[in-house]
């Protein structure tokens, strides 16, 4: 680790502590050249896969877009913010666990529908109607019957 003061490459770790959340390590370092001290943080770097849309374009995964989609489907439904956060966490964990660098938007949509089905059946139907481009009432009836079966 380079010293931020003199840019010497020989620094010594004098103290290591894990953060309260347990998601980073704080290291106190001392430069062997100028004897100044500084702090560094070590964190896990997780890269979410890139989303490949139907038209072939690619975009970075954005948690805010996922939250907005869920909130739109869940509008005026009795679902807590904690439940939405948990659903987002489940989806993100599945994306990371896939190990893929790219994921088709349809796969993300399926993950969202699975979580919405678990959270709220009405929100699931709302989302499915847009996601699957329902064109007539019979498609709504089929989706509702599918939910009733389970």
Written account of the structure:
- The structure is a single chain.
- By secondary structure, the protein is α+β, with helices and mostly antiparallel strands.
- 45% of the residues lie in helices and 21% in strands.
- The chain has 5 helices and 6 strands.
- Strands 1-2-3 form a 3-stranded antiparallel β-sheet, with no helix packed on it. Strands 5-4-6 form a 3-stranded mixed β-sheet.
- The longest helix has 18 residues, at 81-98.
- The protein is elongated, with a radius of gyration of 23 Å.
- Belongs to the NrdR family.
- It comes from Undibacterium amnicola.
How would you briefly describe this protein structure?
InterPro entries: ATP-cone_dom, NrdR-like_N, RNR_NrdR-like. With 150 residues, the protein is α+β, with helices and mostly antiparallel strands.
Q: What's the quaternary structure here?
A: single chain
Low-pLDDT segments, ≥5 res = none
| Beta-strand percentage range | 15-25%
Helicity level, as a percent range? Answer: 40-55%
H/E element order? EEEEEHHEHHH
Give the termini separation.
56 Å
Largest sheet: 3 strands, antiparallel
Q: Which structural class best describes the helix and strand composition?
A: alpha+beta
Q: Biggest sheet: strands side by side, in what order?
A: 1-2-3
